[in-house]
Amino acid sequence: MRKVTEASTNRLIREKSPYLLQHAFNPVDWYPWGEEALERAKRENKPIFLSIGYSSCHWCHVMERESFEDDETAELMNRAFVCVKVDREERPDVDEMYMAACQMMTGSGGWPLTLVLTPDLEPFFAATYLPRESAHGRIGMRELVPAAERVWKEQRGRAEETGERVAAALREVVESQGGELERKTLDDGYERLLSAFDEDHGGFGRAPKFPTPTRLTFLLRYWRRSGNEEALRMVERTLHSMKRGGIFDHLGKGFHRYSTDSSWHVPHFEKMLYDQALLTIAYAEAFQATANLEYARTMDDTITYVLREMRSPEGGFFSSEDADSEGIEGKFYLWSEAEIRDALTTEEAAVFLRVYDLRVGDGIGGELTGGERGVLRMRAPPDAVAASSNLREEDFESVLDSARSKLLDRRARRTRPEKDRKILADWNGLMIAALAKAHQATGRKEYLQAATAATEFLLERMVDRDGRLRHRYRDGHLSPETFLDDYAFVSWGLIELYEASYEPRWLARGMELTDRMVDLFRDETGGFYLAPEGAVNLIARRKEVFDGALPSGNSVAVLNLLRLARLTGEGRYETIARRTIEAFAGSLASMPESHTLMLSALDFAIGPSFEVVVAGGSEDEGTRSMLRAVQESFIPNAVVIFSPSDQSKGGILDVSSTAKRKVPVEGKATAHVCNGNSCLPPTTDVETMLRNLLPARS
User: Fold this and answer.
1) What kind of architecture, by CATH, is found in domain 610-693?
2) pTM (2 d.p.)
3) What is the CATH number of domain 183-325+420-606?
């Protein structure tokens, strides 16, 4: 085994990214993405070996152990290439561009992402994980490196031609295809999701199965618009199945990244901040729509995990937790029945194993752990099991809680997976939005407090002296980059925080960031680029509109702009939003199921959508009741403004023209409901207000 010392580090030792630092002791002569590597490639006329991954990626760790820590493989790489390592979470612009290239060249993608580039950054080879030696139809690193070296020396013209062709294709898809805003696109999106729906287990498609919460939140909006109960059923089936499957951590709470099977049972075990945020939003909205307490409990469980394990001392949120511990994927999370019985009393074990079961085999107990350990999943809901037991329901719950607590304590003695402690502005924006949405749905103050603390951290520590929001913070250090998603996602959080707290300062900051976003990223022909104007070392400045595990910055930006137009009365926001939807209308029409947050924005744009101004005293019980009623209801196409009758300078009237001339009637809390330029008669009755906001379905 290679002896690793401080003296054997490469250039990555100077980086802040935990993923890059993981590779700082590799014998590969890694460079970070930047001028030094690119200048050397041109100077020596060498191709670039580009490896992109992230710190909690299991197969990234496997490739590192097999190839990048191997002296012989590293020697081959160092001779043939200038080797560059990229953290996809720090450089989403680089990752998005070369992931698109990989998909063009191979028909698929994933991480680790492996490419060979010309010195002009144009790719002529692409793959994902590669073993050290060729196996199972995959070329091995020890075969790839000399083959690529020969191609570059003997067939350079062919390699350059391939790279030029791919680069040209990447630049072509930047151009948006325009079209009209049509209700039919919403119907088509629903039909596509219905055809892909897994009737047995919920979710969409086959394994591997990702949560994709924006599909669920679109379906909730489609149900609200159309009254189609099938749309709601798909949402509920999926939410129930995910909570009960192994993709949910039944002891420590929170969701793993995705399921390797179709039944949500065997996950890839990494936990991502963005999954917790987006799933929290989906469960919160489902609770608003149905009042089903299971959704509120799942939302609370997910937030409990985030606040316990992912919150930094400054108030921001870390990025992820790894899948591996002690070099084995999932080892921290897996159990055998013998381990469970050893940790619990006989009664606790009997109750626990009636609610939860373990599935071993199928690669879990063998390939992953080498034993008879498996993933916990819920066999049956606790209340259903309690009803058929000899215990009273409260006694059953007490025993089950004790069992879970003991197992969590026992698990805490294991080697915990590594945590990626960098703080990303965009993912924190999503978590702020989720916490604010959870507060709206339940009224729980601790959610609002956590959202406020994270927002204050972001705006104080991640905005530089020039007012530019930076992408990454770690150990007091800010990255120089900024991206569309940072501005769009943090603005989303600020808008939700305003509607949770009704503090005008958050709406004002949301407007400021949105205005800056428009200046930095907008394409006048429609849509927003991921990277700002003047970005260097990119062969294409791209616009992303695909809503996958993460929503696209364009989708979030459009929804923000539409809501801000109604919240502030600034029509320019709606003009930009509609122009952006029109720019991507062709993509929406051809693949609506892949643009589900943009479909939610289209749903808002088509309308009807409403502005609700609640005017009344800040301490008035009637005002609080009216605000709570609209917050806890699922009315996705309404924005809510609170206009205190006792407001002072710096209040909502300084931010929003929508609130002007909206006053209490006869001194009572009053709701003013408007739809565009048409307003209904003011009402002091909560039920009348809600009826006005839930018109006949279209």
Assistant:
1) 3-Layer(aba) Sandwich (3.40)
2) 0.94
3) 1.50.10.10
